[in-house]
């Protein structure tokens, strides 16, 4: 018989959290199914990950338990303060994703010897077709 040990969110790696969030966002699993499949103990842990690492539709209006907040509709005028908050959230997400991808590239280089570089400016990934 295995012994039950209480886990915290710090016991899960960022890569694991992002993988679970991606599966839920794609519709492959519900938050409850993800919790059961991966043995995640907290009933709201996956939802918390969705708010932190998922798309904007999972963000809460506030920490007081109000309804889920969506990014504003671009056709409606938005107060500058709200737009700034939205942009700050987008920036934070982009920075988290960039840090994650840089960590992945670091592991690929260190553990697998894979060299990943940027394409030179002005070079296209498409092959040019010669007209003749």
From TrEMBL:
Record InterPro entries: Homeodomain-like_sf (IPR009057), WH-like_DNA-bd_sf (IPR036388)
Region: Disordered, residue numbers: 55-80
UniProt-listed Gene3D superfamilies: Winged helix-like DNA-binding domain superfamily/Winged helix DNA-binding domain
Protein's recorded name: Transposase
């Amino acid at each position: 018989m295995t012994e039950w040990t209480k886990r915290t969110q710090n016991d899960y790696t960022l890569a694991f959290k992002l993988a679970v969030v991606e599966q839920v966002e794609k519709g492959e699993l519900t938050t409850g199914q993800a919790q059961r499949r991966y043995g995640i103990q907290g009933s709201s842990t996956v939802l918390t990950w969705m708010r932190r690492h998922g798309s904007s539709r999972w963000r809460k209006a506030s920490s007081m338990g109000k309804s889920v907040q969506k990014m504003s509709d671009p056709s409606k005028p938005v107060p500058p303060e709200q737009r700034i908050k939205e942009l700050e959230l987008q920036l934070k997400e982009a920075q988290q994703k960039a840090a994650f991808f840089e960590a992945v590239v670091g592991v690929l280089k260190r553990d697998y010897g894979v060299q990943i570089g940027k394409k030179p400016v002005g070079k296209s990934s498409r092959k040019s077709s010669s007209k003749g």
